[in-house]
Amino acid sequence: MEKIIECVPNFSEGRDKRVIEAIVHAAASMPGAYVLHTDSGEAANRTVVTFAGEPEAVAEAAFRAVKTAAERIDMRRQTGEHPRIGATDVLPLVPVRGVSLAECAGLARRLAERVGGELGIPVYCYEAAASAPYRKGLESCRRGEYEGLRAKLEDPAWRPDFGPAVWNESVARTGASVIGARNFLGAVNFNLAPTDDRAGDLAVAKAIAKEIRAASGSDWSLPGVKAIGWWIGEYGFAQVSTNLTDMRATGLAQAYGAVSAAARRYGRSVTGTEAIGLLPQWALDDAGRCFGDSGDGATAAAIRGLGLDTMRSQGRVFDPDEKIVERVLAAKMTRKVPR
């Protein structure tokens, strides 16, 4: 393939395996689109699916996945720890090779128009596909979440870019979607060592998240970082959950160091890192250099230094051949099996 893009939609279902499998199957059913990874969380009640391939094939695979999610997920009954506004909560297109961010943005807007028109889902376009500066941030488009969507649709400033601007039975079921284009984003959660004070652990996670997020303007804020603190019941500890939206500005090692330093200020410690979805090879290489290895062992050094392989007892194993996007895509394309 001369042109490759990645799509990383987040669906508001992390518990019902039949629903998750149906969504993944829908994406994989499109020739030329390769499903690389699926990551589900019960407490978050959320699944992140990563697929890549030729731009038009990926866009069609995305539409099929969104359609299936709309048919299978009822937002009126959905609950979970993760913020969300709809069944397909957010869907970014990401340039990988031979495609510009601007081209991905144009494709994202065409996909959003189709989702709004054919599926009757309100769609907000964000990041590079945003129609106005105040809509660029995901957190702005998702503010109020599903519970506040009815009022949001009544606000002229928040009329959807595509799809219905009225609350009806269909919208009540599907919620809205946020579709756009962005560069690689690192979704990583930093684990706090549990103590006997669960409420205190959660409060510390939230305090750290507030300090380090770029929007806070604090002495410890990190460029390009979005963060929240939460308690994950299935793991038994609190996490500082982050989106590293510009890993050239704040990489994996820098974020880990900042969260660890903040945890120490609160008398806590970081025990490891959970990577959600896939990471690009260069991000691991950069982290490995920070941990003292700039050669062939950089990936292994990053895994050790970040504690990416410390959650085996929780069933979370960081296998580079399954978690690094270039390796997974190369393997899939070599086998020529688009699923």
TrEMBL record:
Annotated GO biological process: L-histidine catabolic process to glutamate and formamide; L-histidine catabolic process to glutamate and formate
EC number(s) reported in the record: 2.1.2.5
Domain Formiminotransferase N-terminal subdomain per the UniProt entry, residue ranges: 3-183
Main location: cytoplasm
Matching SUPFAM superfamilies: Formiminotransferase domain of formiminotransferase-cyclodeaminase (SSF55116)
Positions of the Formiminotransferase C-terminal subdomain domain: 184-328
GO cellular component: cytoplasm
PANTHER family noted in UniProt: FORMIMIDOYLTRANSFERASE-CYCLODEAMINASE, FORMIMINOTRANSFERASE-CYCLODEAMINASE
SMART domains cross-referenced by the UniProt entry: FTCD, FTCD_N
Organism domain of life: Bacteria
Any GO molecular function: glutamate formimidoyltransferase activity
Name this protein carries in UniProt: glutamate formimidoyltransferase
InterPro entries linked to this entry: Formiminotransferase_C, Formiminotransferase_C_sf, Formiminotransferase_cat, Formiminotransferase_N, Formiminotransferase_N_sf, FormiminoTrfase_cat_dom_sf, FTCD
Protein localization: Cytoplasm
